[in-house]
Structures are given as structure tokens and as C-alpha cells.
Amino acid sequence: MTKLMIAAALAVLAAGSAAGASVSSNQYTGHELSKTVKITLVQARAAALKARPGKIIDQELEKEKGGSGMRYSFDIRSKGKTIEVGIDAMTGAVLENGAESKTKEAKETAMEKKH
Known about the structure:
This protein is of the alpha+beta class. The protein has helices at 2-18, 41-51, 102-114, and strands spanning 55-63, 70-78, 81-88, 94-98. Helix 1 packs parallel to helix 2 (41-51). The chain is globular, with a radius of gyration of 14 Å.
């Protein structure tokens, strides 16, 4: 099992390097939920960068309304703007691909502090 985890970590690191990501691919909130989803972080990162080419600056796996209820969220720096891309963690579908409003961002920050 340890060899499998090391191989998976190396694959994630290689994919992150190839995608030009600045966030270490093993640094993300919600990694403990990864055993409950069908789409891997590597697959989700690839889908997010395909939907919005750029540089991943933040990533998380979270329970959130919409789609299957499990979502990878990526903040991607693209053309001088930060864009949030949401990938359904069960299907790989793009659920969100746009600038996050300051109101929504403040609400999410407040919710995170409660948990």
C-alpha cells in the first residue's frame, strides 16, 4: 500500500510540474475526502487546466451543492485574473469556470472558519 501511495504521489507531482502548477499537488484542503470520490486529484487538475489554462494557485476537495455534492475547486491564475474552476469529483464534469464574486468569496471564508 505504501508503494502505491508513493507512486501516486510521484504521478501527481509529475502532472503538476507538467501543468506549470505552483501549488504542490499534495497540498490541498479536503484530502481526507479523496477516498470517497471517483476522480483523482490528477484527473481533476487536468480537467481544470483544460477548461481554464493558467497556473493553479490553490486547490481543495470539498462537499458543496451542485453536481454530485463533491467538488474539487481550483483557483487558477489566468491572464492576470484569478478564476475558480470547479470539477465534480465523481464525474469529472466542469461545474464552475469563472471569476468568483467578492460576496461569494467572503461567504465561503466565513463558512470555513466555522468548521
